[in-house]
Amino acid sequence: MLVHYFTRGYIFPRSMDQEPGSNRELGEGYKYVALGMQFAGGIIMFMLGGWALDRWLHLTLVLTVGGTVVGAVLSFLSVYLRLNADEDARRREKDAKK
Predict the structure, then answer these.
(1) What is the pLDDT of residue 65?
(2) Which partner for 64 in 5, 50, 53, 92 could form a disulfide, CB atoms 3.0-4.6 Å apart?
(3) With bands split at pLDDT 50, 70 and 90, how would you rate the model's confidence at 28?
(4) For the packed helices 22-57 and 62-97, what is the interaxial angle rounded to 10 degrees?
(5) What pLDDT does residue 8 have?
(6) What CA–CA distance (Å, rounded) separates 84 from 60?
(7) Cβ atoms within 10 A of the Cβ of 38, count?
(8) Is the separation of the CB atoms in 46 and 70 below 8 Å?
(9) Residue 10 clears pLDDT 60, i.e. is over it
């Protein structure tokens, strides 16, 4: 009985159809989430590498901090260059339409 009530449109009276361009925005959002994950992953990867070297060489947190800084700088550069490339591609696409 509840199935008929909840599936008849009483809760969502408007259509649930997607608009034609709505998937593009969703893809753009996932692209930026992936860039954030890449940024965080790069920092964590270099930090863990520095930590492993610190443990192996019996040093204090020198290489862990160094790895974190190097990872942050390289991850930032990677994300920055990718965003610039996307912006350039968007400009070229916009100029081609004119």
Answers:
(1) 96
(2) 50
(3) confident
(4) 160
(5) 54
(6) 38
(7) 14
(8) yes
(9) no
Per-residue pLDDT band for 46 (boundaries 50, 70, 90) equals: very high
Closest CA to 67 of 50, 84, 92: 50
Sign of CA dihedral 43, 49, 55, 57: negative
Residue 56 in tokens: 């192996």
- Rounded to whole angstroms, what are the CA distances from 16 to 2, 11, 20, 44, 96? 20, 11, 13, 41, 34
Amino acid at 79: V
Structure tokens at 51: 């930590």
With CA atoms as reference, report the closest residue to 79 among 35, 29, 27, 31: 35
